[in-house]
Every structure is written in C-alpha cells, then in structure tokens.
C-alpha cells in the first residue's frame, strides 16, 4: 500500500542497516546506501500510482559500490508494497548466476520473508521434448532448415541423419531426471546439433501439446508465474514486448531493473534487426512437404501442393537482380566464384535506398511470403481447433507442428526482412540500414540480406519506455566523457520527463590503487601493421615487470595474432589466448597458474574486456595496445555516420568518441576490483594523451594516477575538468 516518501525513506534506511548486520562480511558503504535510497525516491510514485508517468532511474554505480544489493533491496521493498513483481535483466550469464546464487539469498536473510526467485531464458535455450522424441525415431532432419539464418554450419550441407544413439542417450537422461532440459546444462559434444531439439515458438502447440506438463520451457514459465523476482536478459525483455505469450509480467505489473545497462542500446538494435538467406531454398521445400503431409493426415480442406512455388520463383528473380546489381551477371556464373572472380564481402545501400532494379523483386518476395505465411497461419488455427475437439489427436498434431515450425520460422524471417528492407522512414526519422553479405562455402555462394534500425533510441522510445512503469538502469559505465548525455541519447531517454540521473562514486582510492600509463609510439596507430609491431616490442619489455596475472585486450584478431606470434617461446607458454579453448577453461588455467605463484597473461578481445572478475594478483596489469574504436566497416555504423553527415553533424564527435570512451573505461576497469587491489594500466596509443578527444576520454575515467611515458621517462598528465 502507498506510504509517504518520508516513511519509505526511513524504512529503506532501516532495511540497509539490517542488511549490513545480517550478511556475513558486509560492511557499510555510503554509495550503496545512497543508491538504495535514490531508487526509492525516484520510483515511489510510479510504483504506487499505476496512472503516474513512467519513472526511470539511471544510476552509474562505480565498481565496489555493491549496486546489485542496493537495487535488489530497493526494488523488492517497493514491489511488495505496490503488489507487483521485480524483473532483473542482465547482459551476461555470469551476472545472472551472481544475482541468483549470491545476492538474492543474502538479501533474503535480511528480509522478513525471503523472495521467491526464477531464472528465465530465451525459449531456444530449452529442450522441446517432442522434437527429441522425433529425433529418436531416426527421421532425417535437415540441419540447414533447423539452424537460424547466418549459421554457417548449415550451408550447404545435404540432409543429415542425426545420430540416433546420441538422441536416445539424451532422452534417457531427460526421462530419468539426470538432465534439466536446458542448453546450458549440456557439454560441448551434446550441443553440436542443438537446433534439432530446441524449443521455438513456431513449432510449439503450447497447452495442446501432450508434453505440456513435462516441458522445461513451460516448467520455467510456471515457476516464473509464482516468483516474486524474475531474472532474465535484455533480449528476452525486448522480445516480451512483441509477444502475447511472454513469460515476463507486463511493464505495468513489475519494477524492471536493467543491470549492465550500457548494453541496452546495442541489444535493442540487434533484437529489432532481421536477416534472411536468399541463396538457399531447402527450407521452403521442407515447409511445403511438411504442410502437404500434415494436411493429408488431418484431411485439411485447403491443399498445399505447390504452395512454395510462387515464393521460390520470386526468390530466384530477386537473386538474379541481386547478382546483376552486384556486377556478377547471371546466377549460372556462381560456380565460377571460387576460381578467380572476386566477390565483395558486402554491398550496403547508401542512405537506405534500394536500387530501382531491386524494388520490384523485393516486393514480389514480400507479397508471396505474406500469402504463404497467411495460409500457413490459417492451417495452424485449424490444427489447434482439431486438437481442442479431439484430445487423441494431440501427439499427432504436436509432431506435425514440430516438423512445420523450423522452416516456418525461416519464412517469417524472409517476410520480416522484406518488409524492413522495403520500409521508408517517417519524416524526421533516420532510414534503415540495409545491406547484402556474401560468403563462400566451397564452390557455393551464400547471399544474406540484412536490415537494421539505425538508432536504438527510436525503437526503445517506441517499444520499451511506453510499456514500462518503474525502471532502474544501472552499470559501472553509463557516462561517456564524464556525462550522461551519450547514454540518454542512445537509449531514447534524452529530453524525456521523470528521468533521474545519478552518479554513485566508487569507494576505491583510484589514485593510490591504480596508475594509468600512456605510451605514445613512433608509428601512428592508423598504420596498423607498423603500430602493432612496435607495440609488441614495447609490451614484451613491460611484461618483464609482471609477476602474477596480466590481461591484454586487443582491438582485432589481426592485432591479437600478431602480438601472440611476436612472443618468444618461454613467454608464449605463459599466455592464455582467446580462441585456444572455452573462456571458462582459460580462466581456470589462469587462476591455477597464479595460485602456483607463476606469471600468467590472458590475451583476448572485447568479450574479455568486461564481465571478468579478476581480483588481487589475478590481474595486476592491464595492457591495451590501441584505443578500442569499433570496426570501421560495420554497416550500421557506416549508415549512421552517413545520416549524421547529411545533417551536418559529426559522427566521430557524436558517436564514435563516446562509445570508445565507454569501452575503454570497461577495459581499464578490469584492473581494480576491490579496496585492496593495485594495478598498472598501460595504453600504447598516443592519441589518448595527445589529442583533444583522447584527453576528454582520460578526464572521464576514474581518477587514476595518469602519466605519459616517453623513452622510459614518465611525466604527469594534466587534464581539463569535466563539467557534469
């Protein structure tokens, strides 16, 4: 029930004292208390008044604040009094495991009644028991039909008989309770053909399925319906906005917390992007075959013979137009691609404008796909009606839907891609980024059409924020260049009323615990080969000072491979390099080596630059060869830069520099994870201290001791003050 702001403030303050007294090893942190109270103050009205406008608390909480406990305590307290749930959304599995395995149980001890908790994953991470049963019969399944677009393992292999023994062994583990039906519980060998048995919306008959009461996906949904706190990921939350059968509560029935919120914009872009492979028709043949077979079995009055032919012909015509537009001529020449003809990797359509020669073929594909989609959807309704009328048809219908579902998903992808590719922006809105990707698999050419909204802010303003009631967005790196402006602009919150921004400072003494050394090189960072060679030599000298754990974060595979190749044999033996094994295995090896008192150097790319918790000796040095600018040939970034330039705006200033600053802050943040850590951070890119934008980045970083090193001599870096 509603309480006064003063009473709520007092109750949250008292809860924090209880939390500190109850949790073993917990110590009072001013920033943690500040964050808890700020969330309560910001969201109270929205939590208790359903008609109140959406409230969003955007909080950058420095490393060491203990933000997870702070937002959980505040959100659960508010939710209980308002009679709603809490949804915690993260970007990584590691944080989900921390929230469920550590933070929530500890908080439960401090509350009068511990909250019930459920972990929710995307449907595709759960087993479909019907598909597993089908696989155990030895039926042939086409991997290309089951895999999503862009899965290179599926192109262009023939129909493959899945090993019956493997599926039967897996089914026995499922039937006997030795496996929980989740993808994440399987070893690498069992994941080779996961798509063959993964649950998906298109092949699911829901309550009408005979396996409904023994299905891991619906078991998770049932657990979620009873839980007070749901832990999910950003993509699942965004997907729930477009689904009538979501496992998550609606935005007005929950308080949502987006942890690792700096990923929210990029996740939104990826979620609302679409793609379709134009060069493969096997899924369409399989769809027609499955529809015909099911219609005959169930005596459906509408026939499906030849139903895929119009779309197949339209796709053929589109392929011919695409090849002509790309300059290669007729499709008959494709076999020559591997013998001298050079295919460009990508063709992007400038300003989101399709060439006139492609508009008609794309319209034909869209119209044919829409008609087939409508016809298949009508058949789906017929199947549900038949199942409702006759329970004995349940197993038969479930098997047919499981067969139809995967290729039907490919049809939906083609339709969505065609619609977005043909779309034109509303007045004042940015265009859609549209492009074609080309790749060779043996003598076969794979052509994939892709389209993506240009700005995450547009889709988040349209889909996410209007659906929400009370939201917390938090991370250790929401600010760029010392300000929230970039984050607010990217997420569509800029200029939106009732948005609180708050920085909660880290309790760490960065000036004492960390030193950032900028090492300008003679070679320009823009001369990639020469710069990398020089950095490799400098880094080898600096590595002599490393006693235990170090982390090297590279901007590209080319750079990573060159640095690794330059290491002498005795150093190479001490390196754990991304790609040489699963990340968890590399981290275990690293920890074991450091525990033995040995030197160990982790080398990786962006995925090693955040989410790694390497306290103490595990990471006493962080080496950054080059400022982590995004790939210059990213088609969405190219299209965005093009659009900004047309408006007389600077893509570099408005987009590139802030995004790089956030990424750099994440990378350098790997070095100091606790009050007792000490680390040296080294960046071999003179632009960081020698350019105006680089000095802006430096000024926005935590207050490390910052020096520039030239010819072995270190001098302090004096920086301009950042206006908040």
TrEMBL record:
Keywords: ATP-binding, Helicase, Hydrolase, Iron, Iron-sulfur, Isomerase, Metal-binding, Nucleotide-binding
Protein's recorded name: ATP-dependent DNA helicase DinG
One Pfam family matching this protein: DEAD_2
Domain of life: Bacteria
PROSITE patterns named in the record: HELICASE_ATP_BIND_2
GO biological process, one term: DNA repair
Record bears the keyword Glycoprotein: no
Chain ranges of the Helicase ATP-binding domain: 18-315
GO molecular function, one term: metal ion binding
């Amino acid at each position: 029930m509603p309480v006064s702001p003063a009473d709520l403030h007092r109750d949250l303050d008292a809860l924090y004292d209880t939390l500190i007294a109850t949790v073993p090893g917990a110590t009072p942190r001013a920033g943690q208390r500040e964050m808890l109270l700020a969330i309560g103050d910001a969201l109270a009205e929205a939590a208790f008044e359903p008609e109140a406008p959406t409230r969003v608390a955007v909080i950058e909480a420095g490393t060491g604040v203990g933000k997870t406990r702070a937002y959980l305590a505040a959100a659960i307290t508010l939710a209980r009094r308002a009679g709603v749930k809490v949804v915690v959304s993260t970007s990584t599995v590691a944080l989900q495991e921390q929230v469920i395995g550590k933070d929530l149980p500890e908080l439960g001890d401090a509350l009068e009644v511990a909250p019930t908790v459920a972990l929710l994953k995307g449907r595709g991470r759960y087993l479909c028991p019907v598909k597993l049963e089908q696989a155990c019969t030895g039926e042939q399944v086409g991997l290309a039909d089951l895999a999503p677009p862009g899965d290179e393992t599926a192109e262009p292999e023939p129909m493959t008989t899945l090993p019956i023994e493997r599926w039967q062994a897996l089914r026995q583990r499922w039937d006997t309770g030795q496996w929980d039906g989740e993808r994440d519980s399987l070893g690498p060998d069992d994941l080779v053909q996961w798509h063959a048995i993964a649950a998906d919306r298109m092949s699911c008959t829901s309550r009408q399925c005979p396996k409904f009461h023994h299905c891991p996906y619906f078991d998770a949904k049932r657990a979620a319906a009873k839980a007070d706190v749901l832990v999910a990921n950003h993509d699942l939350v965004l997907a729930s906005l477009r689904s009538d059968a979501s496992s998550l509560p609606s935005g007005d029935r929950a308080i949502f917390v987006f942890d690792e919120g700096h990923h929210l914009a990029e996740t939104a872009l990826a979620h609302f992007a679409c793609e379709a492979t134009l060069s493969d028709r096997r899924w369409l043949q399989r769809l027609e075959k499955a529809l015909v077979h099911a219609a005959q079995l169930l005596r459906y009055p509408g026939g499906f013979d030849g139903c895929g032919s119009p779309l197949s012909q339209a796709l053929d015509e589109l392929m011919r137009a695409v090849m002509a537009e790309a300059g290669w001529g007729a499709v008959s020449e494709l076999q020559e691609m591997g013998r001298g003809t050079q295919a460009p990797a990508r063709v992007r359509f400038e300003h989101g404008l399709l060439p006139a020669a492609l508009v008609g073929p794309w319209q034909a594909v869209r119209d044919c796909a829409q008609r087939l989609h409508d016809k298949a959807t009508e058949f789906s309704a017929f199947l549900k009606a038949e199942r409702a009328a006759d329970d004995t048809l349940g197993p038969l219908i479930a098997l047919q839907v499981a067969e139809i579902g995967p290729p039907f998903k490919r049809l939906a992808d083609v339709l969505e891609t065609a619609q977005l590719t043909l779309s034109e922006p509303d007045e004042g809105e940015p265009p859609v980024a549209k492009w074609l990707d080309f790749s060779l698999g043996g003598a076969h050419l794979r052509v994939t059409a892709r389209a993506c909204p240009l700005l995450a802010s547009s889709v988040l303003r349209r889909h996410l924020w209007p659906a929400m009631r009370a939201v917390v967005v938090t991370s250790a790196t929401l600010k760029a260049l010392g300000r929230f402006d970039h984050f607010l602009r990217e997420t569509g919150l800029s200029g939106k009323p009732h948005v609180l921004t708050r920085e909660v400072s880290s309790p760490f003494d960065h000036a004492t615990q960390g030193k950032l050394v900028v090492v300008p090189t003679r070679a320009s960072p823009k001369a990639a080969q020469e710069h990398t060679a020089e950095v490799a030599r400098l880094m080898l000298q600096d590595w002599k000072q490393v006693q235990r754990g170090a982390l090297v974060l590279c901007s590209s595979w080319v750079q990573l491979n060159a640095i690794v190749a330059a290491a002498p044999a005795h150093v190479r033996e001490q390196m754990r390099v991304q790609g040489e094994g699963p990340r968890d295995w590399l981290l275990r090896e690293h920890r074991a080596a450091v525990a033995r008192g040995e030197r160990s150097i982790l080398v990786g790319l962006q995925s090693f630059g955040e989410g790694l918790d390497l306290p103490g000796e595990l990471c006493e040095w962080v080496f950054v060869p080059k400022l982590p600018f995004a790939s210059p040939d990213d088609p969405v970034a190219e299209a965005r830069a093009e659009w900004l330039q047309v408006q007389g705006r600077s893509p570099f200033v408005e987009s590139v520099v802030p995004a790089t600053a956030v990424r750099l802050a994440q990378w350098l943040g790997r070095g100091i994870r606790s009050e007792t850590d000490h680390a040296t951070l080294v960046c071999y890119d003179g632009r960081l201290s020698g350019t105006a934008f680089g000095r802006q980045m430096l000024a926005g970083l935590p207050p490390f001791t910052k020096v520039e090193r030239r010819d072995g001599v270190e001098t302090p870096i004096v920086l301009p003050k950042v206006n908040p």
